[in-house]
Predict the 3D structure of the following.
Amino acid sequence: MPVIKGSSLEASQVVKDDIFKDEFLKIGPHKMARKYDLHVSSVYKRRRAIELREGLTIAPPSKGGHVQQLDQHPAAISLGIQEGHILIGSDSHYWPGYVSTAHRAFLEFAKEYKPKVIIKNGDEADFPQISRHAPIGWEERPKLSVEIDNLKAMLSEVEKVSPHSRRIWPLGNHDARFETRLATIAPEYANVHGVHLKDNFPKWEPCWAVFINADTVVKHRMKGGVHATRNNTLNAGRSMFTGHLHSLKVTPLSDYNGTRWGGDCGTMADPYGPQFYNYTELNPLDWRSGFILLTFVKGKLLWPETVWVSGPDTVQFRGREWRV
């Protein structure tokens, strides 16, 4: 790229927005000013103009570069989404012989909205046979092989209805039981093909976190408690969408940097389904079944939308109730 001479804001406009955002994140304003022979104030003005126009927060790298380099971490997946949808379903806890309303609705939304990316945000399996928790009474637990076969069938349905979507699976704590058990009792099998959960699901990309544009993160869990959605985005400094707590809600947080969101993607299982019969002891659960749809326009995340299971065969979305 040729060096841009001059110190005016107009000169800085020669650098396209996407390139400007990427370089600001990676090298910061002062190095950008030296690189393009600009006054540093022009770089800051350009950054603010883009933030206001796109509703983003473009932060400089930390002194060690650690925060902004997380999207390049081998356990992370980085996405750039200018236009389109991301569909996020979490905590499916798929159980053999049982198909939830949320799963059926998820298939319909994947077919209708043709999302660029589908994220199954962890705890797709339940894996009670390899849990560290002791069985309660004489409860029946599905065999591991049966769970894997059922999980393959459920995810293949998602693959079929939206074949062109990129498919990503951040690991959940229940999913991690698969490899944790092997690592505990047979560590010598490490790195042997077939002993890793991802080996059974080659069409899904595993990771710990998904970084979207410069301001949004999706991962299975972060903070706990009833205020987790607010605390997640407060501590992350970005919009943050998690699962784990099964609560299905979106919490806005506004400050001098603008507005960002903390979202809990709920559970795609029935809160009173067979996976949870015993250990919840049929207590009232502040859980909600459903999932989240993200929409991006010109790189800006619009207000995130929830799809809530309101009955055995119905979901609510955008002020209407839909049968699935």
